[in-house]
Design goal:
By secondary structure, this protein is α+β, with helices and mostly antiparallel strands. It contains 10 helices and 18 strands.
Length: 426
């Protein structure tokens, strides 16, 4: 489970900002919306992030996704290749060429791990990993440039692997894929327990719907490999049916053993067929690509959310409200609040403009986050639990839209006058 994430000098985040899923126990909230892992850790199951356009909401999700991608895709980097992900805060002379830093705290089997790294365009400046097996900080390793300081807890051929790690590569994924056991667990957290759906994830592709297509294809692959009788397939169809999409069944065409990773699956959905007397007479097949954009998003996002619930994953989604009815958005969040459904401590973190979520869902103050930009163009992040004078249970939507919580656009009258050629005054 995710405990917290920190970012510094990345895109609009100039100063270090920390997003946390650790409850603020001092607030005596009405709702729990949390999962107790053990006697040491209790973690929130959902959070929503609000802010004006260009405030930095998407940059926060993008920062998490970028850290995620740097770890999982390390092997694709040649020795002389720069980090395309290096994107420092541009509006300050000090920061424009300074290191970018990502840090994360998370739980594996109830034990806290703390991982952080800083990088420039062409190299890793610092990388460190600590864990807390008995509640006290213990070093696994710390790296400054190409110099390593290993703790006693880290076993295996760590020195040999460090010499094989280029200056533009991270040690954790390199060591994990070179069979250092403890770091395989760290790598598995990012590969199996963390899913990020960023609005910028596939921005280099020409198709503006590529994010949805890619995740739709991933869910289709999962359904095809699982088969009709697998619990995931049955639950997925039930979830789609609960959204009132009219889809009664799904067929995925293709042979999973013959398909290449980027081959697009042919998805056929079945709808009920009725006669003029409103009596069902059968079903009709329809290409999934002909379904509405909202249904297509529900297919991809619903699949990711279901995987998260079934496997105890952390799912992070940008532009959560896009193409979704507010009641469906609220319903998806409530799945994570329900302890009878969310039995494995799954988490859902979303960035959204949909203020209906604040009125339809039962949120704690420490679950509601605001991103604002200051006059220097730097994004600042805070939760309502950080703001004094906000009682529990107030109408958060009304307060937010009125500007009392911050994070709304400052709309000014432009006061301009249109002029058309040939119709000038005078």
């Amino acid at each position: 489970m995710l405990l917290d994430f920190s970012v510094e000098n990345y895109r609009s985040f100039r100063d270090r900002q920390t997003f946390t899923m650790i409850p603020d126990d001092g607030k005596n909230e009405i709702f729990s919306n949390s999962k107790k892992i053990n006697n040491k850790y209790t973690v929130l199951t959902t959070a929503v992030i609000y802010g004006a356009n260009a405030s930095g909401k998407s940059n926060l999700i993008r920062a998490i996704h970028t850290m995620h991608k740097l770890i999982l895709n390390y092997s694709d980097r040649s020795p002389d290749e720069n980090f395309k992900e290096y994107d420092p805060f541009a509006f300050n002379v000090r920061t424009s060429q300074a290191p970018v830093t990502f840090g994360i705290n998370f739980l594996i089997k109830g034990i806290r791990y703390s991982y952080e790294f800083s990088l420039l365009a062409n190299k890793v400046l610092e990388e460190k990993l600590f864990f807390y097996p008995e509640g006290r900080e213990s070093k696994l390793f710390k790296r400054i440039g190409q110099e390593y300081d290993f703790g006693d807890y880290l076993k295996g051929q760590k020195v040999i692997v460090s010499k094989l790690t280029n200056e533009n590569q991270l040690f954790v994924p390199k060591a994990a894929l070179n069979n250092i056991p403890q770091l395989r667990d760290i790598y598995s957290f990012f590969s199996r327990n963390l899913n990020t759906l960023s609005a910028f994830e596939f921005s280099e592709r020409k198709n503006i719907f590529s994010t949805r297509i890619d995740y739709t294809n991933e869910i289709a692959s999962t359904l095809l490999e699982a088969g009709r009788d697998h619990p995931f397939t049955k639950q997925f169809k039930a979830l789609l049916n609960s959204f009132d999409t009219g889809i009664e069944d799904i067929e995925i065409e293709g042979d999973p053993e013959k398909m290449l990773p980027f081959d697009e699956h042919e998805i056929i959905v079945k709808h009920s067929l009725y006669n003029d007397s409103q009596v069902k007479t059968g079903s009709v097949d329809r290409a999934f690509k002909e379904e509405s954009t909202g249904t297509q998003k529900l297919f991809a996002m619903g699949g990711l959310i279901l995987q998260g619930l079934m496997n105890g994953q952390t799912v992070i989604i940008d532009e959560f409200e896009q193409n979704l009815h507010p009641l469906i958005s609220s319903y998806l969040l409530q799945l994570f609040h329900n302890p009878e459904i969310n039995t494995k401590g799954a988490q859902l973190i979303v960035a959204s403009h949909d203020t209906n979520l604040l009125s339809q869902s039962d949120f704690r103050r420490d679950q509601i986050w605001i991103v604002e930009k200051n006059k220097f163009g730097a994004s600042e992040l805070f939760s309502l639990a950080d703001v004094s004078g906000i009682p529990k249970g107030v109408p958060y939507e009304k307060w937010y839209l009125s500007g009392r919580l911050g994070g709304i656009p400052s709309i000014k009258s432009l006061g301009f006058e249109l002029s058309y050629f040939g119709n000038e005054k005078g």
